[in-house]
Amino acid sequence: MIRPPAPGIIWASLPTPALLIDGADRVLEVNPAAELFLNMSERALKGLPVGERIAIGAPVEEILARVRAGRAALFINDVDVGTGERAPVVCNLQATPLGDDPETVLLLIHPRELADRLERAAQVKSAARSAVGMAEMLAHEIKNPLAGISGAAQLLSMNLSGEDLELTDLIVAETRRVVKLLEQVEQFGNIRPPELRAVNIHDVLDRARRSAVVGFAAHMAVIEDYDPSLPHALGDADQLTQVFLNLLKNASEAARGGRGTIRIRSFYDRALRLRRADGSGSALPLQVEIIDDGPGIPPAIAAEIFEPFVSGRENGTGLGLALVSKILSEHGGWIGVESAPGRTVFRISLPVAPKHLERD
Predict the structure, then answer these.
(1) Taking the CB of the first residue and of the last residue of the chain, which one, N or C, has fewer CB atoms within 10 A?
(2) Coil, strand, or helix at residue 230?
(3) CA distance 173 to 179
(4) What is the per-residue pLDDT across 94-139, written as a single tens digit (0 to 9) for each?
(5) Which phi and psi (to 5°) does residue 352 adopt?
């Protein structure tokens, strides 16, 4: 017989920031998610009026009074919530009576940060589809005349010398560089649909890490911080390897030739659910973070970093992160980034493989 979890375990495991408020509008309890969100301990908040240490951009006392009087839940959207320890964040609030207790109210805080990021990701995906379609067409049309230009320059170089030969060599070199860029554009548009299977995410990470440390990340210290208890992910091992290689390459290039540190972290987080266009949702509990200690993403491009042709590096094509976003989107996954000087974190969220796939 399976015993239900104790209420204390449920409270501690609740992923949404939550506070219990007594009849005098004082904080009774704060769950760990709220401590993390508010950057304040339960000990610092317990027994204080809810508005004393927590800045809520709504009439909290009136909201609590209405909930107690009506014995019904109340929802308030787009409210600034913060403390002296962290800047305000736009949140949705839910206040609801606690069982048969006429005075105690449960206050749930739903930060909009994640919802806004998911909304931006959907917009980026739509924009990327249009941009890539146009780029593919141009790539196909431009490659043929470039081949003619390169061939003509090579023929001319057979009868030239000195500075004239240098000029034809430059023409050939530049046309080859442009063709290489166009091939990357074509590759971006021609990624096959993923073959989804049960994948050990740590095997994929290890494959990407080994390739990185003997090549482009040889100058970096790569640290593994894995949760060995993670279940299998639902994904395409080859395409996920490409995702992690691109992110590791991006992290190593952030060091700009100097020695830096890359940390690869895996963990389980049940808080993230991705809502599809048809209204259904799916959990994305498997998390992988690629963390570097470089200078960070330039603020001017931070919001568009996953869009095609947006790059923070000189001579960068801006296709690497767009390709990563495209692959993860087709996996039903998600990628986000947080960046500040000295710490940039790319976080990948993936679904768990169904049990029957793990047995196959």
Answers:
(1) N
(2) coil
(3) 10
(4) 899 887 788 999 999 888 765 555 555 555 555 555 555 666 666 6
(5) -85, 140
